[in-house]
Design brief:
three-stranded antiparallel beta sheet, mainly beta, about 180 residues, Lipocalin, single chain, eight-stranded antiparallel barrel
Length: about 180
């Protein structure tokens, strides 16, 4: 039940449509990346530049996403910093580090947010996120959990600057930032 709730919460953070004006990013003294719609005071925050990816006529089948265990080109291609497309209401980031660690952060509301931390694995068009730590901020009250919860993601399209994914029948477009 918890796993289903967490998956629905992640989908809700990615799936709504509209446009956010500005998003700022900065790294704190501990090396943790932060994102906010409000420019923070006292830190050197940079505004994230949203660039719309080129239009896609047709998404390839998931089996056409090529992987190679020998040279890890697919891992190199999928790892990086991803943000939901500019037309998405709930701005979110997904950072897939080369060391197979990931972090997810919702950006819209500083009093209601979800942060996920864990490991990732990509193989043959599927991305599995293994959530090790979840931080939920609801109406300003913080709760943390440390349970291993998998989230399965189908990768529909993967290019150098764009990734289209599907979670529970919801298509989500991400762009590299």
């Amino acid at each position: 039940m918890k796993q289903k709730y967490n998956l629905l919460l992640l989908i809700a953070c990615f799936a709504h449509s509209a446009h956010a004006d500005k998003v700022y990013t900065w790294v704190d003294d501990n090396g943790v990346a932060h994102f906010s719609q409000d420019k923070p005071k006292g830190v050197n925050a940079k505004q994230v530049q949203f660039v719309a990816p080129p239009p896609v006529d047709e998404l390839p089948a998931a089996s056409t996403v090529q992987t190679s265990n020998d040279d890890n080109k697919s891992d190199e291609m999928i790892s990086g910093n991803w943000i939901t497309s500019p037309s998405t209401l709930r701005k979110s980031t997904l950072i897939l580090k080369p060391n197979r660690q990931f972090s997810y952060q919702s950006l819209n509301d500083p009093k209601n947010s979800v942060d996920l931390i864990g490991t990732w694995h990509y193989e043959e068009g599927f991305l599995q996120l293994q959530v090790n730590k979840k931080i939920v901020l609801k109406r300003g009250k913080k709760s943390e959990s440390y349970e291993n919860e998998p989230i399965d993601v189908q990768v529909l399209q993967l290019t150098n600057n764009k990734m289209s994914i599907m979670i529970d029948d919801q298509n989500i477009d991400l762009a590299r930032f």
